Amino acid sequence: MRADARRNRDHLLAVAGDVISEQGVDVSMRDIARRADVGLATLLRHFPTREALLEALLHTSFHELTARAAELEASQAVEGALVAWVRECVAWTTEYRGVTVLMAAAIEDPESALHVSCTTLRAAGGRLLARAQAEGRARDDIDGDDLFALIAMLAWAGDQPALAPRADRLFAVLADAVLVDAGDRGGRGAEKPAQPSTRPRKPRR
Amino acid sequence: MRADARRNRDHLLAVAGDVISEQGVDVSMRDIARRADVGLATLLRHFPTREALLEALLHTSFHELTARAAELEASQAVEGALVAWVRECVAWTTEYRGVTVLMAAAIEDPESALHVSCTTLRAAGGRLLARAQAEGRARDDIDGDDLFALIAMLAWAGDQPALAPRADRLFAVLADAVLVDAGDRGGRGAEKPAQPSTRPRKPRR
DNA sequence: CGCTGATTCGGATCAGCGATCCATATAACC
DNA sequence: GGTTATATGGATCGCTGATCCGAATCAGCG
After folding, report:
1. Which of A104, A163, A205 sits opposite B160 (nearest CB)?
2. Fewest CB within a 10 Å sphere: which of A45, B87, B90, B195?
3. What is the 3-state secondary structure (H, E, C) of A21-46?
């Protein structure tokens, strides 16, 4: 890559980071280009789609989140690690208003520039969830995809001005739904039951 | 209103209903006008905003849903009524792809044409929830606003192609989170406990 | 250093969006 | 049938992202 192109690319990323974190990911590409004193065509050549721009902008954040999952896995109780990681994921999305919709669209679209980052993130969460399930701390009838969906739902709610004030409570409600109380059902088999699967709660429908 | 105007208005509503249910609420206003063989300005005069068009199109559905809440309240167990009504709300939104975002924006925006419909719906849900809480069947630390948010989150997930396949399971997870097991904690006080409030689950945080 | 060829840039343009203007057409009333 | 208030829709505006292509810039070689 030519030196001036590299310079433009880096500059564009820096400016895009500023503009997007203050205006949200739906900001017009023209605005970003203007703020970077660059033609719209230049921005679009470096990053042909909004997803491509976000991927370049956020992929270190994505890596940090997946690394954080491994870190929590090593240092925390299974339940605490899962809850803490989900909380960090949700908190992270609030820095980039609107990114949730793009991620939800990218997770099943191999063409999207955000696809691999999203699937990696989902896998990291799936590992934390599986570990909690193995110890009977999380309900067994959900998987990493469901966890990703729950995170996306919380993140989306945090993006909606009318719903955001309740984000903490919604988080608590969903956490209660996913986690299995350690001392549930009195003390009967306080240790991990032989058959922790198919959580015997109300078998709704 | 002049007769030709009334005719155009009705025709526009009929066409908009078709187009929106097959293309989603984000369809271009021009497309709707074209399908109705009408100028764009005519459509926009009858319905100055997309919200206004949707309000006219959906307000009978809104009334049906609030009426349905009263109906279920009279005919069902508190818990079943709440769950059934939420399920109907979520199912209804799937008929109009994308309507959830507009509703989430309208619930706290008195200027929106959808505002009163949304708040009415929220109130209906709040009544069902309060009744379930009074009998100790739903957790006490949420209110109608939270319920509306949970419905919106489920509806939004149903709108996302990648998340929609898991909508049923997500619904079950959230239902478990909101409802209090009738026979929870073995048989200790199978009848409604004297103090059903502040669900004594893990006091997270 | 200066030339040449490949690369990059960005103004111009296009199709699409919702919003608005206003000359024209039409319904309703006398 | 004439008059007037109302409704219509083509034209236009500013905005969006996508694309084209002449001009500017860089890099490497003589």
Report:
1. A104
2. B195
3. HHHCCCCCHHHHHHHCCCCHHHHHHH
DSSP conformation letters of B173-198 = HHHHHHBPPTT-STTTT-SPPS---S
Q: Which of A93, A115, A140, A173 is the best residue to mutate to test the B interface, defined by the most B CB atoms within 10 Å of its own CB?
A: A173
Query: Chain B: residue nearest A118 by CA?
Result: B162
Mean pLDDT along residues A75-83:
94
User: Does B31 contact strand C, using a CB cutoff of 7 Å?
Assistant: yes
Q: In sequence order, what are the residues at sequence separation of 6 or more whose Cβ sits closer than 8 angstroms to the Cβ of residue A18?
A: A35
Q: Indicate the pTM of the whole model.
A: 0.90
Q: What is the mean pLDDT of chain A?
A: 90
The whole-number average pLDDT for the span A88-109 is: 97
- Put simply, the answer to whether B177 touches A173 (Cβ < 8 Å) is yes
In whole angstroms, give the CA distance from residue B98 to residue B93.
8
The span from the first CA to the last CA of chain B, in angstroms, equals 59
In this prediction, residue A106 has a pLDDT band, given cuts at 50, 70 and 90, of very high
Q: State the smallest CA–CA distance between residue B94 and chain A in angstroms.
A: 16
Q: Which nucleotides on strand C sit less than 7 A from a protein beta carbon?
A: 7-12, 16-22, 26-28
Give the separation between CA A147 and CA A125, rounded to whole angstroms: 7
Q: Which pLDDT tens digit goes with each residue over B171-203? A: 999 999 999 876 553 333 334 333 333 333 433
**pLDDT, tens digit (0-9, with 9 covering 90-100), for A116-144:** 999 999 999 999 999 999 999 999 999 99
Sole residue written with tokens 């208005």: B9
